[in-house]
């Protein structure tokens, strides 16, 4: 992963600054596991439909908002493997593919303290990499009840309206939508 992040070309100032931090923290102990309570690696997935005009979002129980799919790497060094597993587990979709082998985005995310599975989790950082993926919006979606309350395909604009996390909408989801438009022009 170190080489992938090293080779990654930042899209904007946020990604440039976050890339610097990600390269530093990759050298620390336990950043691939939740044992590092200050911060650890996660993957997120911006999943487009087959026509590339909608994005799949889940209604996340912890954040009480429509959000992208993804999860903790939990020690796995193959982040693409984690991304695929997370999308399949969180959506029930079996046929999901990567639109690129490269990282699509990267970010350092703050996570507020919350209760998960009956235990309090202190505020911490998610050192996140994002993959661009594709699935058929006609395939059946299945809610992962311990993590989300809903799954839905949104137009890019409606995805921004659906999320109740202003920082994510302004800094992450809007960026991802812009990057998708640029990516599809190629």
Automatic annotation (TrEMBL):
Q: Which domain of life is it from?
A: Bacteria
Question: Domain Nudix hydrolase spans what residues?
Answer: 38-176
- Does the entry feature the keyword Hydrolase, yes or no? yes
InterPro entries named among the record's database cross-references: NUDIX_hydrolase-like_dom_sf (IPR015797), NUDIX_hydrolase_dom (IPR000086)
Keyword set includes Hydrolase: yes
Q: Which residues cross the membrane?
A: none
Name the coiled-coil region(s): none
Q: Which PROSITE patterns match?
A: NUDIX (PS51462)
Q: Which UniProt keywords apply?
A: Hydrolase
Q: Which GO terms describe its molecular function?
A: hydrolase activity
Q: Which family does it belong to?
A: Belongs to the Nudix hydrolase family.
What protein am I looking at? Answer: NUDIX hydrolase
State the taxonomy lineage.
Bacteria, Bacillati, Bacillota, Erysipelotrichia, Erysipelotrichales
């Amino acid at each position: 992963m170190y080489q992938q992040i090293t080779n990654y070309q930042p899209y904007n100032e946020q990604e440039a600054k976050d890339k610097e931090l990600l390269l530093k923290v990759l050298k620390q102990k336990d950043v691939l596991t939740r044992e590092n309570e200050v911060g650890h690696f996660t993957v997120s997935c911006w999943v487009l439909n087959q026509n590339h005009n909608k994005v799949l979002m889940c209604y996340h129980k912890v954040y009480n908002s429509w959000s992208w799919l993804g999860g903790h790497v939990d020690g796995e060094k193959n982040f693409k493997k984690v991304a695929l597993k997370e999308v399949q587990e969180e959506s029930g979709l079996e046929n999901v593919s990567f639109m690129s082998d490269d990282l699509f985005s990267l970010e350092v995310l703050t996570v507020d303290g919350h209760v998960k599975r009956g235990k309090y989790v202190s505020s911490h950082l998610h050192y996140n990499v994002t993959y661009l993926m594709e699935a058929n919006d006609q395939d059946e979606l299945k809610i992962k009840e311990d993590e989300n309350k809903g799954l839905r395909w949104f137009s890019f604009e409606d995805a921004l309206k659906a999320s109740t996390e202003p920082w994510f909408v302004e800094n992450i989801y809007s960026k991802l939508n812009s990057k998708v438009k640029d990516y599809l022009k190629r």
